[in-house]
């Protein structure tokens, strides 16, 4: 894994349907300045900038990293743009971490963002090129059949997705940055919303958000001088697989299992449910909580929905998932993965505020993207590994 | 000859115009004169009152009856809307011929506001006020090119620019490539073609000319049936121009003889009766409408055969 690496600064913007008060540059700068403030640094202290976002078609700005170099104080420094679809926020953090772990840089600023209000993600994800047309409409249209397959395979009852939709929105009420804040959110409220792509209901989907998140990653010597407690990186892993091949398990893709096994091995984890204190996992449709519980080895196959139903993943359960409210509550797509990684760091730094998991010392950050093809994960802890 | 008696119920009316020829010649005095002179130059000025405030538009005497000072202060041009009233059907003499707002606008640096027309965009007559129109809104004057020293030198106020639309368009020429061309040639003859991989033996329909697992080119052509089994599906409640109605079913269909399912519409059955394991058959358009396109198959329809047990399809999910 190389040299030690730690998160010493986290910055987030408020996540909203529309941030018409700022430009894209203003949005990323807001997150970057908050991360620098947390780290007690200025742009002058930063060695390199790594930036991530989802497809350029979302805002129609080609190579936005070039335009954002000034806003992120990158003049005269290396700047790298990462792109791995919806998992990009996670991969961006891992590219930044690798620069520190390789001993190349001491302080790297990592930023990810999306300004979904500038167009329409469903349009951008459904461009319908000729010759090989597909009938998939947006992300929900793609994932709904795989959720149905999960339900059939495990015999999960219909209401499990509703439980996750409620739990994550209840958590969001404790997170001042969260986009969807629905007082009195209840099963009845979720069940009364229409089926968009059966079996996915409206309130079982993530919102479209504008927002940015940033972190400052530091070497050990830089972390020792940080004003606030660091989150140490205990393991990092990325995996990918083709979207389409004979024998592919689309419900629990092998790339996700391999990625989890790799990150746990680095962190010395053999039983993630017992050895991790909480997890921030990319759950854009509520059913992906039980699906990823199995894929990430928090339980055996077919047991994920039982874990969700038991309340184990609630804020007061034995393994809280998405204490921040998760992707179901805030979804600036390109930033969503980085927010998972950053929230995991906040938990082990003890800085998560009202949604702090008491005594959290080790946490998983997870992101996935494309047709469940790209995976990025890290384990962070309060103690230097 | 005596006239017909008039209809007494009809009121008797006549048009009358009262207009002093050429308009009144009004001396404006030094204070208003300064204001209008600056306005002709495209500037907004207020005047300092004895108590220290900035009166805009200037008046010769303030609300306390004191004469104003001779200190003029440039204000604006940016300002803030302090109140407004929406005019959904403008009259002929209004400054704008489309719905607009009368607004009280306080330019930056002034302590009082000016009443003027606020143009917030193009709306149909009778439209409700837009949500963007609100107290606190930032606005600027739009000056006429030809100015004479009149309040009408300001055509209207307009909101600050907060958003632009950025049209962008890319045009492509897509080349289907060898494998897809061959597949669509087959479809144009009513045949569904695939490739079998030399290494793993799996059949891919449509073929891509390669096996994504083994990373080898594939060439062995296989024709498969136009019947198959629904492995899984979504019921879509969001309208789509390509679907016959809402809700519509998009399903993964494992064609008999293929090792990979393809995504297609399922119709000819109520959406809530579609099942995993249901047997289906391609519904082809009339042969004379066929081209080199998958649109030759309108959708897949149930065959009526018994469902395939879950165990037989679970490896294809
Ligand atoms: Zn093969």
UniProtKB/TrEMBL annotation, chain A:
SUPFAM superfamilies: Thiolase-like (SSF53901). It comes from the Bacteria. It comes from Actinoallomurus spadix. This is Thiolase domain-containing protein. InterPro entries: Thiolase, Thiolase-like, Thiolase_C_2. Residues 249-379 form the Thiolase C-terminal domain.
From TrEMBL, chain B:
Pfam families: OB_ChsH2_C (PF01796), zf-ChsH2 (PF12172). It comes from the Bacteria. Residues 185-217 form the ChsH2 rubredoxin-like zinc ribbon domain. SUPFAM superfamilies: Nucleic acid-binding proteins. Residues 72-144, 221-285 form the ChsH2 C-terminal OB-fold domain. Transmembrane segments: none annotated. PANTHER family: BLR3430 PROTEIN. This is OB-fold nucleic acid binding domain-containing protein.
């Amino acid at each position: 894994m190389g040299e030690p690496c730690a998160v010493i600064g986290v910055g987030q913007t408020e996540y909203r349907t529309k941030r018409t008060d700022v430009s894209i540059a203003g949005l990323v700068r807001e997150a970057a300045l908050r991360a620098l403030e947390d780290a007690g640094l200025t742009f002058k202290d930063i060695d390199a900038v790594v930036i991530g976002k989802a497809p350029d078609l979302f805002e129609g700005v080609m190579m936005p990293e070039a335009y954002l170099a000034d806003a992120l104080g990158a003049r005269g420094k290396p700047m790298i743009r990462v792109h791995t679809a919806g998992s990009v926020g996670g991969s961006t953090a891992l590219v930044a971490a690798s620069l520190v772990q390789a001993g190349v840089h001491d302080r790297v600023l990592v930023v990810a963002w999306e300004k979904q209000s500038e167009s329409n993600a469903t349009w951008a994800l459904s461009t319908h090129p000729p010759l090989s047309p597909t009938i998939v409409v947006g992300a929900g249209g793609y994932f709904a059949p795989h959720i149905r397959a999960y339900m059939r395979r495990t015999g999960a009852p219909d209401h499990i997705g509703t439980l996750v939709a409620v739990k994550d929105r209840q958590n969001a009420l404790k997170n001042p940055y969260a986009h969807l804040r629905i007082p009195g959110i209840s099963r009845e409220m979720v069940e009364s919303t229409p089926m968009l792509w059966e079996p996915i209901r409206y309130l079982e989907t993530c919102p479209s958000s504008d927002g940015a998140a940033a972190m400052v990653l530091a070497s050990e010597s830089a972390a020792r001088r940080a004003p606030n407690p660091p989150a140490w990186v205990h393991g990092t892993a990325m995996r990918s697989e083709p979207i389409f091949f004979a024998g592919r398990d689309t419900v629990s893709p092998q790339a996700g299992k391999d990625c989890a096994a790799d990150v746990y091995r680095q962190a010395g984890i053999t039983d993630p449910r017992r050895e991790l204190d909480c997890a921030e996992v990319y759950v854009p449709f509520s059913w992906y909580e039980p699906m990823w519980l199995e894929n990430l080895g928090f339980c055996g196959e077919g047991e994920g929905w039982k874990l969700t139903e038991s309340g184990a993943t609630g804020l007061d359960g034995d393994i809280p998932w998405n204490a921040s409210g998760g992707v179901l509550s805030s979804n600036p797509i390109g930033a969503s993965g980085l927010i998972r990684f950053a929230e995991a760091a906040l938990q082990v730094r003890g800085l998560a505020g009202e949604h702090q998991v008491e005594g959290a010392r080790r946490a998983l950050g997870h992101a996935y993207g494309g047709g469940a093809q790209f995976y990025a994960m890290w384990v962070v802890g309060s103690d230097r590994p | 000859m005596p006239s017909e008696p008039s209809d007494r119920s009809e009121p008797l009316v006549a048009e009358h115009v009262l207009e002093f020829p050429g308009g009144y010649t009004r001396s404006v005095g030094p204070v208003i004169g300064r204001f209008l002179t600056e306005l002709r130059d495209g500037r907004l000025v207020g005047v300092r009152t004895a108590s220290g405030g900035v009166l805009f538009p200037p008046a010769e005497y303030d609300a306390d009856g004191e004469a104003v000072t001779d200190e003029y202060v440039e204000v604006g041009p940016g300002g803030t809307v302090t109140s407004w009233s929406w005019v959904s059907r403008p009259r002929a003499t209004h400054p704008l011929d489309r719905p607009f707002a009368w607004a009280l606008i306080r330019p930056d640096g002034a302590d009082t506001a000016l009443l003027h027309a606020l143009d917030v965009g193009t709306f149909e007559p009778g439209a409700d006020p837009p949500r963007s129109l609100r107290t606190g809104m930032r606005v600027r004057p739009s000056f006429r090119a030809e100015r004479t020293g009149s309040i009408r030198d300001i055509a209207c106020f307009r909101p600050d620019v907060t958003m632009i639309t950025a049209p962008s368009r890319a045009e492509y020429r897509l080349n289907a490539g060898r494998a897809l061309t061959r597949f669509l040639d087959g479809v144009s003859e009513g045949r569904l073609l695939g490739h079998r991989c030399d290494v793993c033996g799996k059949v891919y329909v449509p073929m891509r000319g390669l096996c994504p697992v083994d990373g080898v080119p594939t060439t062995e052509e296989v024709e498969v049936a136009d019947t198959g089994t629904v492995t899984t599906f979504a019921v879509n409640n969001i309208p789509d121009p390509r679907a016959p109605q809402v809700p519509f079913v998009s399903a993964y269909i494992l064609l008999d003889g293929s090792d990979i399912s393809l995504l297609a519409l399922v119709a000819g059955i109520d959406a809530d009766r579609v099942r995993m394991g249901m047997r289906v058959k391609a519904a082809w358009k009339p042969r004379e409408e066929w081209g080199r396109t998958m649109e030759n198959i309108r959708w897949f329809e149930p065959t009526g055969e018994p469902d395939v047990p879950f165990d037989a399809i679970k490896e294809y999910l």
